[in-house]
């Protein structure tokens, strides 16, 4: 009968409308519970058996990320939402992936300079036993056993960029570690060729990837590609083997099937998304899964958990390729970038692309390639090929990472750079300046769309209870406090009324006489409810405004608090909305 | 997971990180299901039919070191400078073909190179070639080349702007009304000598022997009638050389003067490329011999519009071919698409005794190894020494596409081009050409 399909369609339509209507109230206020925010994700629960090792192919992953995955994901119609592992304070809890260091605890420049290194450095006065060698390929190097009985991976610089790759591997590891990621202990070492001795049963990888017995010829081949210092010594980056059993790289999407702790899709993990800005900062274009490592950490018996590391930062700080045009594009474009190809093709070359303006600086030649601050646009930065987590980085994920970076001081950066042991003082000074300027570009971009205010704390003073927050743009020097003002609004969410605007004032970093570091807001008077009622839910918005700033002010930071029946306050949530609308009470 | 291995422990629950429970469903979440359901078949195909199996194969291949084994198999000599790459050409109107190219650098001696190519377009369509280049003392290169191609899909539309003896210009005919096919086998080999004159200039000479045989005249291909059928219908007379095979010796001298800087340096310059070719029939010497002299060349001026490889090139091309005694086989005549810049026409569409064309090409970089190119050309082939030259007989060609940035790279081309009727006619689109692939391999 003709009426039946119509009826079916009508039912379907009614169902859809009902579903939509049912979602209509989803914009109401979502309250945070009266509870402590989660500071640690319990994802280090021991389990057995250990996960299987994962093999990641260079060609397979490259082809997938460049070609196949973008096509399939397009048809999946799965636009990125907000990251999952974000606590009530808009922060990432500590986990097997990430540890809050900057801002969460005192971190001195010495700490940053030390990074993950807890052991004394290799002693070049004692023999190092070479147990493996890779004389071929783009990154020739050795595996050695030091006089301390530990294993290290020795990697060298290219002849065209002396000292860059080794310095980059060390500096990158320090800065990633300081930002909260797990990174290995990498150090620059100088040694004499006689320091290297062939270890028992040592092997080398031949041109086809097969293991063959290691000979002096293999060692000589690697060293011939390394170049020497003026005093005849060799310079290398020594990367200490990570403790535990390697399980292969982690993926930037999905979860590890055989790890019961791994329950958040990796491209929805905030720290992996936000790591895009770390990669952009250092131009870590080679931020692909092969440069990560999962390690099985045994806790008792055969039980353990998986810890996740970033590895190999040797491409950062201006790595150059054999093809100069490719070197100019690194950071601006994927290796094979269909987006740029289409845009350049259909605009007939009328647009001059940023990489076309790149020139090698005469004062440093090729050492740091095209690494600079002048041409750095953090929002437009691209890795060598698409990274699934980076692709889903939201504005708030970027702001989170920027807030972390804002807490690095110039002294911290200098301490990390010094670990690169660059022989030319001018290179060191230039690198510190360049990193600082690139960092400021990240901060001004990613802390301008959402509020930078963070790390809330309640305090009591003569005026009453105050809510104080850090202003990372002031802390980092990206904005002058003299031009910065703050405004606050407050609402009683239970009664659905706006309260008298609280007074906001600059907060000093360490008491009277110290520089301003943020804002404090005197919490408003809230009428207490009758005895036996639940605590009152209060929302406070604090907006930071920079005078004479050409950029519009970002929306406020939104604090969620409970006014307790005993008159005290409890902070339970902090948000960084992308819009300036008042809360939907 | 292999049988017998313990099952991994069950996953823990996703923590309630912000303590507020699951995010509520929004209207956006619901609405997203509409396109999601609509394109779900495409998702299933691309994710499970394409992505996963291919990536699995690639990854497994790497795990088992297949790439290294392939490379190892292909490596020769101490320099290990061999490369193999696939070729494919899709030129609408012709049979698609695919094959392989092998190249070895420094084979036997430094700077000696050898290239081999094989391609097939199915039954009756085969191509094979070999090229060996050797450096000469004091600069220059000595080349040794061999080529073989047999194919049934060559096209022929008639000769020149008018058919001799026929007052009706053949261009008055529609494509379908003029197109015919012929099968041929071409075997050629010879020596070439090139000496550089500066950075991008060179002088060259080559000697070749060529044998061309036309296969069964009644044979049809690609749904089009054969030349014999068209001739029997009176569409045009029998083209010269079609009745017999021919064997010729060909001697070419060419000069390429090019003031442009080598890539990647930006900048324009002038190119002048005169050339002359003498063809001598090795079987016959009388009035019916197939001997000819071809001469002419191109002059071009290029300017880099922005200093960043936005190259605009204006080029004028003239070519003539004159018989020396007898006739010139129609397969040796000047082709406006092959010898000239009228790329909107397929090879065989416009052939004649002379060519006059002016083209304007703009080229810009779109990727490391690819340039975008757009060009417009006006010209045509004519009779002897521009016989029947008339502005109304000119045609235009428009092309848009991409091609390899450097001739040293794999010569990839992606092009869509249009060819028009004569300017004196209604100036409609007479030819559409789409080419994608590695257009040559040697």
Uncertain spans of chain B? 163-169
Task: Please list the strands of the largest sheet of chain A in the order they lie side by side.
Answer: 4-7-3-2-1-5-6
Largest interface: A-B, 77 and 62 residues
The value of Rg of chain B in angstroms is: 27 Å
- Average pLDDT score of chain B: 87
What is the element string of chain B, with H for helices and E for strands?
A: HHHHEEEEEHEEHEEEEEEEEEEE
Spatial strand sequence of the major β-sheet of chain B: 1-2-3-4-5-6-7-8-9-10-11-14-15-16-17-18
Q: What characterizes the major β-sheet of chain B?
A: 16 strands, antiparallel, barrel
Overall pLDDT confidence of chain A? 90
Radius of gyration of chain A: 27 Å
Number of helices of chain A: 13
Oligomer: heterodimer
- Tally the beta strands of chain B: 18
Distance between the termini of chain A: 50 Å
SS summary, helix count of chain B: 6
Low-confidence stretches of chain A: 1-6, 18-26
The percentage of residues in β strands of chain A lies in 15-25%
Write the layout of secondary structure elements.
The complex is a heterodimer of chains A (585) and B (442).
Chain A: H1 3-22, H2 58-76, H3 109-114, E1 128-134, E2 141-145, E3 151-156, H4 164-179, E4 186-191, E5 196-205, E6 211-213, H5 216-224, E7 234-240, E8 245-246, H6 270-282, E9 292-300, E10 303-310, H7 324-329, H8 338-346, H9 388-391, H10 395-406, H11 410-418, H12 425-446, E11 454-461, E12 464-470, H13 472-475, E13 484-492, E14 497-498, E15 504-508, E16 516-522, E17 536-546, E18 557-563, E19 569-575
Parallel strand pairs in A: 1-5
Antiparallel strand pairs in A: 1-2, 2-3, 3-7, 4-7, 5-6, 8-9, 9-10, 11-12, 12-16, 13-14, 13-17, 15-16, 17-18, 18-19
Chain B: H1 27-31, H2 33-38, H3 40-63, H4 66-74, E1 82-91, E2 97-105, E3 113-120, E4 126-135, E5 141-156, H5 175-178, E6 180-196, E7 202-214, H6 227-233, E8 246-258, E9 269-281, E10 292-304, E11 311-323, E12 334-335, E13 351-352, E14 354-367, E15 370-382, E16 395-404, E17 412-422, E18 429-438
Antiparallel strand pairs in B: 1-2, 1-18, 2-3, 3-4, 4-5, 5-6, 6-7, 7-8, 8-9, 9-10, 10-11, 11-14, 12-13, 14-15, 15-16, 16-17, 17-18
């Amino acid at each position: 009968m003709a009426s039946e399909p119509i009826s079916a369609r009508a039912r379907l339509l009614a169902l859809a409308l009902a579903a939509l209507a049912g979602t209509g109230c989803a914009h109401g206020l979502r309250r945070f519970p009266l509870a402590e925010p989660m500071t640690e994700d319990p994802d280090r629960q021991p389990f057995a058996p250990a996960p299987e090792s994962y093999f990641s192919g260079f060609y397979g992953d490259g082809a997938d990320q460049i070609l196949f995955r973008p096509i399939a994901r397009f048809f999946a119609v799965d636009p990125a939402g907000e990251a999952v592992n974000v606590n009530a304070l808009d922060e990432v809890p500590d986990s097997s992936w990430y540890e809050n260091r900057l801002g969460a605890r005192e971190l001195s420049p010495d700490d940053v300079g030390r990074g993950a290194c807890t052991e004394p450095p290799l002693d070049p006065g004692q023999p190092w036993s070479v147990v493996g060698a890779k004389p071929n390929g783009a990154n020739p190097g050795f595996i050695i056993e030091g006089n301390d009985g530990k294993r290290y991976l020795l990697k060298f610089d290219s002849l065209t960029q002396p000292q860059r790759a080794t310095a980059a591997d060390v500096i990158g590891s320090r800065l990633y570690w300081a930002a909260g990621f797990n990174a290995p202990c990498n150090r620059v070492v100088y040694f004499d060729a006689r320091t290297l001795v062939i270890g028992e049963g040592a092997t080398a990888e031949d041109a086809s990837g097969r293991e063959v017995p290691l000979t002096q010829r293999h060692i000589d081949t690697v060293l011939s590609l390394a170049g020497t210092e003026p005093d005849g010594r060799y310079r290398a980056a020594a990367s200490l083997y990570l403790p535990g059993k390697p399980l292969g790289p982690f993926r930037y999407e999905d979860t590890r099937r055989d790890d019961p702790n791994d329950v958040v899709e990796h491209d929805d993990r905030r720290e992996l998304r936000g790591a895009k800005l770390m990669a952009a900062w250092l131009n870590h274009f080679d931020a692909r899964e092969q440069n990560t490592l999962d390690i099985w950490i045994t806790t008792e018996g055969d039980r353990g958990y998986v810890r996740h590391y970033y590895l190999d930062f040797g491409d950062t700080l201006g790595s150059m390729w054999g093809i100069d045009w490719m070197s100019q594009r690194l950071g601006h474009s994927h290796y094979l970038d269909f987006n740029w190809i289409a845009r350049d093709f259909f605009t007939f070359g009328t647009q001059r692309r940023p990489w076309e303006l790149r020139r090698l600086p005469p004062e440093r030649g090729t050492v740091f390639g095209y690494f600079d601050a002048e041409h750095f646009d953090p929002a437009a930065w691209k890795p060598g090929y698409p990274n699934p987590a980076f692709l889903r980085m939201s504005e708030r994920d970027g702001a989170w990472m920027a807030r972390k970076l804002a807490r690095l001081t110039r002294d911290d950066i200098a301490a990390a750079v010094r670990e690169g042991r660059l022989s030319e003082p001018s290179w060191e000074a230039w690198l510190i300046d360049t990193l600082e300027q690139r960092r400021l570009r990240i901060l001004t971009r990613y802390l301008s769309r959402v509020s930078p205010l963070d790390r809330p704390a309640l305090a009591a003073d003569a005026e009453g209870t105050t809510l104080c927050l850090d202003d990372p743009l002031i802390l980092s020097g990206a904005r002058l406090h003299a031009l910065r003002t703050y405004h606050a609004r407050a609402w009683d969410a239970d009664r659905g009324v706006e309260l008298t605007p609280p007074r906001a004032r600059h907060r000093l970093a360490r008491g009277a006489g110290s520089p301003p570091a943020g804002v404090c807001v005197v919490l408003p008077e809230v009428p207490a409810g009758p005895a036996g009622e639940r605590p009152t839910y209060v929302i406070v918005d604090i907006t930071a405004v920079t005078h004479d700033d050409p950029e519009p002010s970002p929306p406020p930071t939104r604090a969620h608090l409970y006014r307790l029946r005993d008159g005290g306050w409890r902070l339970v949530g902090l948000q960084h909305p992308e819009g300036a609308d008042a809360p939907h009470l | 997971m292999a049988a017998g291995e313990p099952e991994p422990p069950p996953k823990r629950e996703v923590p309630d990180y912000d303590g507020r429970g699951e995010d509520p469903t929004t209207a956006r979440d619901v609405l997203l299901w509409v396109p999601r359901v609509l394109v779900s078949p495409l998702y299933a195909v691309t994710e499970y039919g394409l992505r996963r199996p291919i990536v699995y194969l690639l990854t497994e291949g790497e795990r088992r070191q297949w790439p290294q084994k392939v490379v190892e198999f292909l490596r020769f000599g101490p320099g290990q400078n061999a490369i193999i790459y696939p070729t494919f050409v899709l030129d609408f109107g012709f049979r698609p073909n695919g094959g392989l190219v092998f190249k070895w650098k420094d084979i036997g001696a430094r700077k000696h190179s050898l290239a081999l190519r094989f391609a097939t377009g199915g039954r009756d369509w085969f191509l094979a070639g070999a090229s060996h280049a050797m450096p000469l003392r004091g600069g220059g290169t000595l080349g040794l080349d061999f080529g073989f191609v047999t194919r049934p899909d060559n096209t022929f539309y008639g000769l020149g702007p008018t058919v001799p003896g026929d007052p009706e210009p053949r261009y008055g005919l529609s494509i379908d009304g003029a197109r015919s096919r012929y099968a041929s086998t071409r075997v050629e080999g010879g020596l070439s000598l090139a000496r550089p004159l500066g950075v991008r200039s060179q002088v060259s000479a080559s000697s070749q022997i060529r044998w061309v045989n036309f296969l069964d005249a009644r044979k049809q291909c690609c749904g089009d009638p054969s030349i014999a059928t068209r001739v029997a219908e009176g569409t045009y007379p029998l083209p010269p050389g079609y009745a017999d095979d021919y064997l010729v010796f060909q001697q070419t001298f060419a000069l390429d003067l090019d003031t442009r800087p080598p890539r990647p340096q930006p900048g324009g310059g002038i190119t002048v490329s005169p050339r002359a070719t003498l063809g001598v029939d090795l079987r016959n010497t009388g009035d019916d011999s197939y001997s000819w002299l071809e001469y002419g060349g191109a002059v071009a001026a290029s300017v880099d519009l922005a200093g960043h490889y936005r190259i605009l090139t204006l080029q004028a091309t003239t070519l003539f071919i004159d018989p020396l005694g007898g006739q010139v086989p129609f397969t040796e005549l000047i082709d406006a698409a092959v010898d000239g810049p009228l790329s909107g026409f397929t090879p065989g569409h416009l052939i004649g005794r002379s060519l006059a064309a002016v083209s304007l090409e703009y080229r810009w970089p779109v990727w490391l190894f690819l340039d975008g190119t757009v060009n417009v050309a006006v010209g045509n082939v004519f009779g002897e020494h521009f016989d029947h030259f008339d502005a109304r007989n000119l045609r235009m060609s428009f092309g848009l596409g991409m091609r390899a940035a450097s001739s040293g790279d794999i010569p990839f081309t992606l092009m869509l081009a249009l060819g028009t009727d004569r300017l004196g006619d209604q100036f409609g689109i007479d030819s559409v050409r789409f080419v994608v692939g590695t257009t040559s391999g040697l």
